[in-house]
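Treating backbone geometry as a discrete language has practical consequences that deserve illustration. The sequence in question and its structure tokens are set out directly beneath this paragraph.
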Amino acid sequence: MPAIARRAALLGLGAGLAAPALGQGRYPNRSIRFLIPWPPGGALDALHRQMFEIVQKDLGQSVVIENRPGARGTQAALFLVNQAQPDGYTLAHHHLSILRHPFLTKQKTWDPIADFTYVMQVSGFLFGTVVRSDSPHRSFADLIAAARKRPGELTFSTSGIATTNHIAMEEICGREGVQMTHVPFRGAQEGVTALLGRQIDVVADSAAWRPNVEAGEFRLLSVWTRERLAAFPEAPTLHDLGYGMTVTSPYGIAGPKGLDPAIVDVLHRAFRKALEDEASQAIIRRWDMPQEYLGPADYLAFAKARVEYEKQMVARLGLTID
């Protein structure tokens, strides 16, 4: 191949994360908007922000985070479905509640598969149950025993009605034949604040509680990962406790339906490179976040299978938000 032709071919293909030509320019040629349906702070926010710093270097455009809490974590999905254009410039944090939501209401919502483009599964959450360090409940068994003696009196918080951790706690209570009162908040940190203020008895949520456990303010009664954590080796898993459950609520990145496969490829390669970077992996290790990476095809396949599970669980537990 002549040198000029060879150089032109290399410029056309690019290297590493070269973007596809679309319309008048190349993608991306402006900032990418990324919606997170939770308040800022915590492990999830830290991981996304670190990844996006790396993505910016590779793609030459910034990824601007916009936190949109409330409405049970559905604000970002609502924007993707109702307002976002399939041009690759609006993406969102995608989580299991988005797959579950249509089965919780008779109102028109979305098709959890057809109405989104699945880009990449990123990680999951470290969930656990914590009480104040001065709580009389020294173990998870103590908590269940107290709930059995005082039906409905003990309260536990989660980040919303019919969230993954809410469903998990209801399933545990159902197996044990006990009743506890659910107190939903907009995010895990609000539950931590309520527990510090003695407004609730238990937090059953993602690891916003971790600094308080490390500081000795809270006692960790269980973790919901498959294996015990090196940082908290005394805390039993739900498997150790006999429930046979692993609860990580995998999450990822999605766009509106109809996203160009070429754009999906650019985004996936950029996000995967950022996830595998040592700076991102350090955050994952720091927060004991599970390794849940999936590429576009596998993420879509996971979502399809999970939708069926969510539909069954909502019906089984009789959950509704209407």
In short: The first helix runs from residue 3 to 13. The chain has a mean pLDDT of 90.
